[in-house]
């Protein structure tokens, strides 16, 4: 088992499976902690895919794909309802 103070600072991908419950217990679930986690994730994504010397299509296309999937998710209920409607 890892040291608890070090465990709280690790990323989720670096935590071993046996240490996962302790990692979740040490996480900061306050609104400030959740906002900080989203900001760290955004900064990591931005620095890896957008803010690079030879930037290109992959970062922008991932955002565009996420937008398309999210918009389809939000209108799926209406689309599903229209698919089963008989038009006669």
Written overview of the protein:
With 88 residues, this protein is an all-alpha fold. It has 4 helices and no strands. The longest helix is centred in the last third of the chain and has 27 residues, at 57-83. It is extended, with a radius of gyration of 20 Å. The relative contact order is 0.06. The mean pLDDT is 79.
Explain briefly what this protein structure is.
This protein has 88 residues and is mainly alpha-helical. The chain is 68% helix and 0% strand.
Beta-strand portion reads under 5%
The geometry reads as: extended
Q: Determine the fraction of residues in helical runs and give it as a percent range.
A: 55-70%
Helix count, per DSSP?
4
Distance, first to last CA? 66 Å
Q: What is the makeup of the main sheet?
A: none
How would you state the average pLDDT, rounded?
79
Query: What low-confidence regions span 5 or more consecutive residues with pLDDT below 50?
Result: none
Give the total of beta strands.
0
Class derived from helix and strand content: mainly alpha
């Amino acid at each position: 088992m890892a040291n608890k103070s070090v465990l709280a600072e690790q990323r989720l991908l670096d935590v071993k499976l046996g240490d996962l419950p302790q990692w979740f217990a040490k996480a900061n679930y306050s609104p400030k902690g959740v906002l900080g986690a989203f900001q760290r994730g955004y900064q990591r994504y931005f620095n890896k895919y957008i803010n690079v010397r030879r930037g290109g299509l992959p970062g922008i296309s991932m955002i565009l794909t996420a937008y398309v999937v999210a918009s389809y998710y939000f209108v799926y209920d209406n689309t599903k309802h229209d698919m089963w409607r008989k038009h006669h």
